[in-house]
Amino acid sequence: MQLGLIGLGRMGGNMRERLRAAGHDVVGFDHNADKSDVANLAELVEKLAAPRVIWTMVPAGQITEDTINELAGLLSEGDIIIDGGNSKFTDDGPRAERLKPKGIHYLDVGVSGGIWGFTNGYALMVGGDEEIVAHCQPIFDALKPAGQFGFAHAGKHGAGHYAKMIHNGIEYGMMQAYGEGYEILLASELVDNVPAVIKSWREGSVVKSWLLDLLDRALDEDPTLANLKGYVEDTGEGRWTVDEAIRLAVPAHVLAASIFTRFESRQADSPAMKAVAALRQQFGGHAVKR
Ligand SMILES: O=C(O)[C@H](O)[C@@H](O)[C@H](O)[C@H](O)COP(=O)(O)O
User: Fold this and answer.
1) N or C: which end of the chain has fewer CB within 10 A?
2) Ligand 1 in contact with 112 (CB < 6 A)?
3) For residue 96, which of 63, 133, 123, 59 has the smallest C-alpha distance?
């Protein structure tokens, strides 16, 4: 089937190739003219036959909002917009309502797979109306992994991005657990070959996973991770997961600790621990480091 794809970066660019390899007719737009099939959104819309399906794969937030608003002015009744970026789930319901009077349908899709998705396929979590999901199913089938899993119609508008948000909260927690286990192994007086231990867990073990495979890969490239700083950014999903845990009064210790640990990773020194050291000195006369 025919699809317009906006945003041909690390994710979108590979998705275009995977869709084309499956025989779909993809017209891509990107601000980088070297990657783009068309000069602008108007030309993209012109090249697609109605009812059009257009998938946005641009950074969450204002860029996605502006792209969808511009598209809404160009599209016609019956057309479908799919947001496959990591938008916050609270954007989706209002967005779908804004598009409805124009007869434009909307789906939100959480997409996981990173730069490996071209080869392995992408896990897809979709929010929106059943008949619109069904109409787009050939696109989802081409993007998802070949096996029986990797796709869910999670619920109404927002459910796709909600599912992806929770996925990413789990991703933070799992990475943190591997990271902490790795650090304890490194600190141990007993274990000489930490990369070998990580490798041994890749098969047969209870903690084998794709993330563990990737940690092993990183250690193959740089056995002591000497070329990296322990500094970790975040793009929002972990924070939103913890916000939801608080709103719903769900205890989410691991997920909360892992986002806070990322914040800590960005500090050269800790004002909180300075205050703790100062207080301990004040009440007990304990030594501090200067
Ligand atoms: O499932 C995935 O493919 C990843 O989760 C992907 O979506 C992206 O790499 C994260 O959004 C990074 O998230 P942070 O920047 O918050 O770590």
Assistant:
1) C
2) yes
3) 133
Exposed/middle/buried for 254, CB within 10 Å: 0-12, 13-18, 19+?
middle
pLDDT at 177: 98
**What pLDDT shows up at residue 90?**
98
User: Which ligand 1 atom minimizes the distance to the CA of 11?
Assistant: 3
Residues in the chain: 290
d(CA 26, CA 119): 18
Q: Which ranges of 22-158 would DSSP assign to H, the alpha helix? A: 41-47, 62-74, 92-99, 117-120, 130-143
Mutate which of 143, 237, 243 for ligand 1 pocket (most atoms within 8 A of beta carbon): 237
C-alpha to C-alpha distance for 117 and 288, rounded to whole angstroms:
50
- Take residue 289 and report the two structure tokens written for it: 């480091």
Atom of ligand 1 nearest to the CA of 114: 3
How far apart (Å, rounded) are the C-alpha atoms in residues 54 and 83?
A: 9
Enter the tokens of residue 106. Answer: 């909307």
Give 75-128 pLDDT, tens digit per residue.
Answer: 999 999 999 999 999 999 999 999 999 999 999 999 999 999 999 999 999 999
Whether 235 is in the pocket of ligand 1, judged by its Cβ within 6 Å, is yes
Asked whether the beta carbons of 86 and 164 are under 8 A apart, the reply is yes
pTM reported for the whole predicted model: 0.96
Ligand 1 touching residue 171 (CB < 6 A): yes
